[in-house]
């Protein structure tokens, strides 16, 4: 029943807001610090994530709406709700930071439309939490236009 239905969730993580701090301890919103961890890079991610609970639950009793839908989890990794469009990286300390979130978003949209079957979707729900909620809000019309 859910073969042509898609849930797209933008992971939350807050925005990175500081380029000035390059040595620990830095505030949690340091773009430099985040670039080396799970909120700024997918370098250490597994090839497939197993999501549990809430609307990712595959149990129809616990999740009667989405249990059999296709699910896309967009990893938070750009620091700005997928809104960055800077062509060139920024040198911060010993790292080059890339603020190309919108290009990342478009690459992910291209992938699910062209390679995963979303092009045949009958229903698509765009969601997110925290900075991912803002990303969903900022880009829902872009998703619809694609």
From TrEMBL:
Alphabetical UniProt keywords: Cell wall, Cell wall biogenesis/degradation, Hydrolase, Secreted
GO molecular function: hydrolase activity
Coiled coil region boundaries: none
Cellular localization per UniProt: Secreted, Cell wall
EC number: 3.1.1.-
Domain of life: Eukaryota
Entry's Gene Ontology BP terms: cell wall organization
Enzyme class: hydrolase
Family: Belongs to the pectinacetylesterase family.
Function (record text): Hydrolyzes acetyl esters in homogalacturonan regions of pectin. In type I primary cell wall, galacturonic acid residues of pectin can be acetylated at the O-2 and O-3 positions. Decreasing the degree of acetylation of pectin gels in vitro alters their physical properties.
UniProt protein name: Pectin acetylesterase
Organism of origin: Pyramimonas obovata
């Amino acid at each position: 029943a859910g073969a042509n239905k898609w849930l797209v969730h933008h992971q939350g993580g807050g925005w990175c807001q500081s380029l000035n701090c390059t040595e620990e301890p830095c505030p949690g919103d340091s773009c430099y610090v985040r670039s080396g961890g799970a909120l700024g890079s997918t370098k250490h991610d597994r090839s497939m994530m197993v999501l549990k609970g809430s609307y990712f639950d595959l149990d129809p009793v616990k999740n009667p709406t989405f249990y059999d839908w296709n699910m896309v989890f967009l990893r938070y990794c750009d620091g700005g709700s997928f809104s960055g469009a800077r062509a060139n990286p920024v040198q911060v300390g010993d790292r080059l930071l890339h603020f190309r979130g919108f290009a990342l978003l478009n690459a992910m949209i291209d992938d699910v439309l062209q390679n995963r079957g979303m092009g045949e979707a009958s229903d698509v729900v765009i969601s997110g939490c925290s900075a991912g909620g803002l990303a969903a809000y900022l880009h829902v019309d872009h998703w619809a236009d694609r």
